[in-house]
Amino acid sequence: MTSTDWDEAAATFDDEPDHGLRDTVVREAWAARLRTWLPDRPADVLDLGCGTGSVSLLAAEQGHRVTGVDLSPAMVEQARAKLAGRDAVFLVGDAGSPPVGEERFDVVVVRHVLWTLPDPARVLRHWRGLLRAGGRMVLVEGVWGTVSPVGIPAGTLTDLLAPLAADVRVERLSGDARLWGREVEDDRYAVVARL
Question: What percent of the chain has pLDDT over 70?
Answer without folding.
Answer: 90
